[in-house]
Amino acid sequence: MSSMKDGDPLKDLHCRRITFQIILGTNQLRIILRSLKEEPTVSLKKELAEWVKYMSKLNKQSISLLRPGYVQGLRRNRADYEIPRDK
């Protein structure tokens, strides 16, 4: 994305998507932490661990999109950048 021009609609879309995902992830973290404070259960601790893994993958994906020379569609291994969705 860094090679895209500032007015490029695709660049703007990617930046908005990244921002929205981070906002949603942060809100989810606040809910998990609030629940843990009220009643620290094993399932909530597992949910927090899953959140950390998910956000780590999201951050890697965001960094990849922002790195110089990134061209969508020319990724080496698409699985490295996809975030698995719950079934």
Task: Report on this structure.
With 87 residues, this protein is mainly alpha-helical. Helices cover 63% and strands 0% of the residues. The chain has 2 helices and no strands. Helix 1 runs antiparallel to helix 2. The longest helix is centred in the N-terminal third of the chain and has 30 residues, at 9-38. It is elongated and about 50 Å long. The two termini are 30 Å apart. The mean pLDDT is 76.
Task: Characterize this entry briefly.
The protein has 87 residues and is mostly helical. The protein has 2 helices and no strands.
- Number of contiguous helices: 2
The residue fraction in helices comes out at 55-70%
Q: What ranges have pLDDT less than 50 throughout 5 or more consecutive residues?
A: none
What percentage of amino acids are in beta strands? Answer: under 5%
What is the overall shape?
elongated
Give the topology string: H per helix, E per strand: HH
Distance between the termini: 30 Å
Say what oligomer this is.
single chain
Number of strands: 0
| Mean pLDDT score | 76
Radius of gyration: 16 Å
The main pleated sheet reads as: none
Please state the structural category: mainly alpha
Attribute tags:
87 residues, mainly alpha, 2 helices, 0% strand
Walk me through the topology:
Layout: H1 9-38, H2 42-66
